[in-house]
Design goal:
By secondary structure, the chain is α/β, with parallel strands linked by helices. It has one domain: TIM Barrel (Alpha-Beta Barrel). The chain has twelve helices and twelve strands. The strands form two sheets. It has an eight-stranded parallel barrel with strand order 1-4-5-8-9-10-11-12, surrounded by eight helices. Bound molecules: ligand PBG.
């Protein structure tokens, strides 16, 4: 027997052939372990002062900062495409920022007005808001700064006041994104004392000090004015520390636990999904979006395929909820391909 014949014969006794389950699109879809649905997605959006403003964000092609009038129309379009959850971030002029984030509780201010108007127009959507000082802070930090230090316990009352103001304006889910210790419990108590026992909290449980937030900081002009965020956001070398954060957030009353960024932290998504009963969310952040867009614009990768693979990957890791700038694009994809799930 020649070597080739021997080799081929030795290969044919294979009762288990995983390829059988991959032989057609219908079969592949039947055995698919994870699916992506529009109801899994939260679309992060940016609101700016003024009227009739739609300002492109260079580092996030396809994403804009909208004035409230155009934002309402844009949300309407997204709702018609089948999206039902949105996260809102304000981009404010430096002139109204200060050390105490005073603007964050201004009822006539842009953000609280936007929350009220969005919920008045679209009462059925899920509106998530951001609880952190950075959009309003002259220091560009998520916490209160004294002598170049971010002071945890002086930040908590500021966050709590901001949270109650957002709940009062109609927010469905609050997203504390600041990583101060104890903030979930502090905010939960303030909400309950003010009668907002039904307002949910999605904790940014494992938020890492990441280079992937760069385009977002461009969008909001919210980069720290000094230093970095490493004394409060997590070190990307660590995963056990995410369990400490998650234990605290759950004990303090978080309804949903988030990992951020998404793709470089799939192991952390899985770790939390395996160890906690609360729904897990992953934030597919601005830099992850920008990388796909930049490579696709160069013809180096296929935009749609990379988008879908990224988002299904997050679901496979254990995320039930995904915050992603691809949300509208994916909704358009579902519609044009006449599919309800991927
Ligand atoms: C800050 C905040 C950040 C993001 C959401 N909330 C950036 C930061 O921590 O500096 C990043 C989101 C993204 O990059 O898409 N409170």
């Amino acid at each position: 027997m020649g070597f080739i014949t021997w080799y081929i014969c030795s290969m044919i006794n294979l009762p288990i052939r995983p390829r059988r389950n991959r032989k057609s699109a219908a079969l592949r879809s039947m055995v698919a372990e994870n699916h992506l649905l529009l109801s899994d997605l939260i679309f992060p959006m940016f609101v700016v002062p003024g009227e009739n403003q739609k300002i492109a964000i260079t580092s996030m092609p396809g994403i804009y900062r909208y004035s409230l009038d155009l934002l309402l129309a844009e949300i309407g379009e997204c709702v018609n495409l089948g999206l039902s959850a949105f996260a809102l971030f304000p981009a404010l002029p430096d002139s109204i920022k200060d050390k105490f984030a005073t603007e964050s509780t201004n009822e006539q201010g842009l953000y609280l007005e936007a929350i009220r108007r969005i919920k008045a127009c679209y009462p059925d959507i899920v509106l998530m808001t951001d609880v952190a000082m950075d959009p309003y802070s002259s220091d560009g930090h998520d916490g209160y700064v004294e002598h170049g230090e971010i002071i945890n316990d002086k930040t908590l009352p500021i966050l709590a006041a901001m949270a109650v103001a957002q709940a009062k304006a109609g927010a469905d889910i609050l997203g504390p994104s600041d990583m101060m210790d104890g903030r979930i419990g502090y905010i939960r108590e303030a909400l309950d004392d003010a009668g907002f026992t039904n307002t949910s909290i999605m904790a940014y449980t494992a938020k890492y000090a990441s280079a992937f937030y760069g385009p977002f900081r461009d969008a909001l002009d919210s980069a720290p004015k000094f230093g970095d965020k490493k004394t409060y956001q997590m070190n990307f070398a660590n995963s056990k520390e995410a369990l400490i954060e998650a234990d605290l957030d759950v004990a303090e009353g978080a309804d949903i636990l988030m990992v951020k960024p998404g793709l470089p932290y799939l192991d952390v998504v899985k770790l939390l999904a395996d160890n906690f009963q609360q729904p897990i969310a992953a934030y597919n952040v601005s830099g992850e979006y920008a990388m796909v867009k930049a490579a696709a614009a160069n013809g180096w990768i296929d935009n749609d395929k990379a988008m879908i693979e990224s988002l299904v990957g997050l679901k496979r890791a254990g995320a039930k909820i995904i915050l992603t700038y691809f949300a509208k694009e994916l909704a358009i994809y579902f519609k044009s391909h006449q599919v309800g799930a991927l």
